Predict the structure.
Amino acid sequence: MNAQSPDTTRSPGTAQPAVTVLGLGTMGRALATAFVAGGRRTTVWNRTPGKAAELVAAGATEAADPATAIEASDLVVVCLFDKDSVREALAPHVASLAGRTVAMLTTFTPADAREIAGWVGEHQAGYLGAALMAIPTMIGQPEAQFFYSGPEHLFDAHRETLSLLGTSAHVGVEVGTSALYETSLLTGMYAMFFGFYHGAALIRTGGVAAKEFAALAGPWIRAMTGSLDHAADFIDKGDYTTDVQSLLFNRSALDHITHVSDDQGISPELPALLREFMDRQIRAGHGADSATRAYESIARPQQG
């Protein structure tokens, strides 16, 4: 992280830095609440009225339309459903964005980010892509992680305000980079959850409740994450040579899981898919390499 820069989100005639939040779904309300609690002059707008009452009572200002909301602040945080809803909300008022910074806290693909950044840029607005790694109840806490990409000077200018939402970091000048961070981290999360779901289904065939399994799975998964750095070393070096935990060794474990799942009457599809990633590398002659080499089956599917 860079040294602190002065916050430039101040509205004329007020000592409070200003920020606008467009979109008051559950997450948008949490973002606006954190800004209000942090002493920011917060203006909010939502397509459907009636979601701003608590925010207004806490000190926020509700705008009647997006243009009024946008023009209230130099920093405009957009938390809508998708790219289409962003265009729908902003298109009639896009000229109002001139000279302002849009922080896009809407889930985008990297291509979406580049498209919308180019569009608002045509109207002389700055753009920060953003990845939000938190649930609404985490907003305002250090555990909430935010990754921003785009011109670093824009991030520096608004760092103090954005950091009210959680731990914030600038991860690259290419506006789509933050979307890659978000999607990559979500991939790990969903793979973890589906592994848990599979294990819960399997152990339940033996009469063990999911709650009991969760008490065992949590510590086990946390312990296993300690090996991620070791796996990353293999991947970054591109050298999977090892004398322990080979593909062939781990393939036998997945074969076992697949067969037991089938025997117990639950779907064997998840372990079978993981086994296939290993099998592609084994068929290519890499069975003695580290099991981490299965990464290559994902990263270079055309070579599998």
